[in-house]
Design brief:
Oligomer: single chain
Number of strands: 45
Low-confidence stretches: 1-107
Largest sheet: 9 strands, antiparallel
Number of helices: 5
Mean pLDDT: 86
């Protein structure tokens, strides 16, 4: 089989402690007038830093034009000024601390000895008997319960020019963070200590739609006559200006019309691509400024294609494959506002002592420390760039740097399950230079996908099998399903039941497979898991199109009610699988979607739709209930597959 690959594809490679604030009114000392709201009994700070805001106010919503945070206002048409409150009109149901029934006092309200509590901006150290050992006025510092007088309240933010700084966990100083970016139309507002504008993180929320992306070339032996490219879908009603840079160099700047799409070809980054040979040695590499940076002043959706064409200018048809790319896949890119600091990798095993799997790590901030913990199968690595042959390592990356880790080429080597941790947000891709699926079934194809952070993973997924064209008919074909544990002793169940499917994963990083299934079913776990699907090789599907591709499954908790997605028009066949609650009304490109088939007792159904090439492959889909989509397509001896979009909320 391996010899077949070399013969047929020789031209390609592929987180204060809280003080006893309430207890202060009864046992810890008297409070100064105005410090306590008589309606709530909570302590109000008497001094604040006007350039800072706590994380809770930061996430409560975008400010309106008057500068008032609309989502943090109290309900009702009027607000009460506590400084002018008339005691004769006080709600009789509200307890007056001066007339409190002493029988209601409790002895357990005394502050523990040594605990620091704040009255206004005064720090007091409790003596454990209802009094204080010492007091200190925090001026010009601020008082924080549990910490006392500190420089700033942990987690609060401030503007330093256009850089948002965040107070560290000890309150001793400020750490630089996001820089508000004129190319994204954002500026730092000192009143809220954060970036403002439609491309600010508060405005964007947590989804696949954003303004700041890092397209990244990954290992692929394809000929450079085919183009690495990104597609930018403008989801707004305004023209978007999109700027692509690499390091300090400008690469491209284009305008993308409202509700339209633009393809941007980008040069291959050879140290990451790795030439066109399939039979070689691939040491782990770190490439400074290896990733592109793509920024837009309007929210957009970005996909990358490696490469975007499957056929060149010559003959590329079944049986006459003289000018075909052979190794293609695509990935939905995640914007930097949803990047996190912990990921688990999905890849594949080495192919026949010849071709390795990989994962790639991208930083968006300087001095990002990345720590690698291999899985049981992820310890066979071709070391380099600070990564050991056993798969462990600690590597520092600066903005735009890429670390690409290669497995050995043994079938026992599989980077799947490797944990990638960092001290700042990162992006992680998993994939393979060119892989058989299953292991002994030709032909090989490049696979890649952007990994969702563990924080956005869940315990419930619905997987559906794709369509493929066989003898002029679209038929459902079996796929390989891989389930990866993020915690030890993970129990798995299925709806409908899947005979022979794995029911337990003993350790974090372990994975199990359903090797070939054309069934649609729900996977339920008692802990978070990562679920991926792989298309099988052409000889397994008996089609004249297709080959392996990989897609990350989307948790039902991350489904959305609308998507704008792209399917390349130069592929022979493009499809979308739509998974929606039973009875949903789904509209694709203005047309109602029907033909849903129920999926066990899940309350969901699936509809598989052949896509046309209208609107340059740009498609809109919406529903009256949250639903999920996956997009895929086929050319001669190649294919691509990716989730059409998703939310990336943090799931506990």
């Amino acid at each position: 089989m391996l010899e077949l690959v070399l013969t047929r594809r020789g031209l390609r490679g592929p987180l204060l402690l809280t003080g006893c604030l309430l207890a202060l009114t009864t046992a810890c000392g008297s409070e100064s007038p105005g410090d306590t709201d008589s309606n709530t009994g909570t302590t109000n700070p008497t001094t604040t830093n006007p350039t800072t805001t706590t994380e809770t106010s930061e996430s409560s919503g975008e400010t309106d034009p008057s500068g008032t945070e609309s989502e943090s206002e109290t309900a009702g048409p009027t607000t009460e000024d506590p400084t002018t409150e008339d005691p004769t009109t006080e709600d009789p149901t509200t307890e007056d601390p001066t007339t409190e029934d002493p029988t209601t006092e409790t002895t357990d309200a005394v502050c523990p000895q040594g605990e620091i509590v704040c009255e206004g901006n005064e720090a007091k150290v409790c003596d454990g008997m209802g009094g204080f050992d010492e007091t200190e006025l925090c001026d010009p510092e601020v008082c924080v319960d549990g910490l006392g007088c500190v420089t700033c309240e942990p987690g609060s933010t401030q503007c330093n020019g256009e850089v948002v700084e965040t107070c560290n966990g000890q309150g001793t100083g400020w750490n630089p963070g996001v820089e508000c970016d004129p190319l994204q139309g954002t500026t730092c507002d000192p009143d809220i200590g954060n970036c403002t504008g439609k491309c600010s993180s508060v405005s964007l929320g947590t989804s696949y739609i954003g303004c700041d992306y890092y397209p990244t070339v990954t290992s692929n032996g394809v000929a450079t006559t085919f183009n690495f490219a990104v597609t930018v879908a403008n989801t707004s009603d305004n023209q978007a200006t999109v700027t692509v840079t690499r390091g300090a160099n400008m690469v491209s700047q284009v305008n993308v019309a409202a509700n339209s799409l633009q393809i941007i070809n980008l040069p291959w980054v050879e140290p990451l691509k790795g030439g066109e040979s399939l039979d070689s040695t691939w040491p782990t590499v770190k490439v400074d400024d290896g990733a592109y940076r793509l920024r837009s002043n309007e929210p957009v959706t970005v996909y990358q294609y490696s490469p975007i064409e499957y056929k060149g200018n010559g003959i590329c048809q079944a049986g006459l494959t003289l000018d075909c790319s052979f190794t293609n896949d695509a990935s939905l890119l995640l914007p930097t506002n949803v990047w996190r600091d912990q990921y688990i990798v999905a890849s594949r095993n080495g192919l026949g002592d010849q071709i390795p799997g990989f994962y790639a790590v991208v930083a968006s901030q300087d001095d990002t420390t990345v720590n690698l913990t291999p899985s049981a199968t992820g310890g066979l690595v071709v070391g380099g760039a600070g990564v050991s042959n056993n798969g462990t390592g600690a590597v520092t990356l600066n903005q735009g740097d890429v670390l690409q880790v290669y497995s050995t080429e043994s079938q026992q080597a599989d980077l799947t399950g490797t944990i990638v941790d960092s001290d700042k947000p990162i992006q992680v891709f998993g994939g393979h230079r060119c892989i058989y699926v299953p292991n002994e079934t030709p032909y090989c194809d490049h696979i890649e996908e952007s990994m969702p952070p563990i924080a956005s993973l869940a315990s419930s997924y619905i997987v559906t099998a794709p369509l493929i064209r066989i003898l002029n008919n679209d038929e459902v074909t079996g796929t390989m399903v891989r389930i990866v544990a993020t915690e030890d002793n993970t129990t798995l169940t299925y709806d409908p039941p899947q005979g022979g499917a794995p029911t337990n994963l003993a350790a974090a990083g372990n994975f199990a497979e359903i090797p070939a299934t054309a069934n649609d079913f729900e996977i339920n776990a008692d802990k978070k898991v990562l679920v991926v699907q792989y298309m099988r090789g052409q000889e397994a599907t008996l089609s004249t199109v297709g080959d392996p591709a990989m897609a990350v499954a989307v948790p039902t908790q991350q489904f959305r009610t609308e998507y704008l997605f792209h399917a390349p028009t130069n592929y022979e066949y493009n499809y979308v699988n739509i998974v929606a609650p039973s009875g949903s009304n789904i509209t694709l490109d203005g047309n109602a979607v029907g033909n849903f088939s129920n999926i066990g007792g899940t309350g969901y159904g699936v509809s598989r739709v052949l896509l046309n090439d209208g609107n340059n492959g740009n498609h809109t889909i919406s529903g009256d209930q949250a639903f999920g989509i996956s997009v895929y397509g086929y050319g001669v001896d190649t294919s691509y597959w990716y989730p059409g979009g998703l939310d990336l909320k943090v799931i506990e």
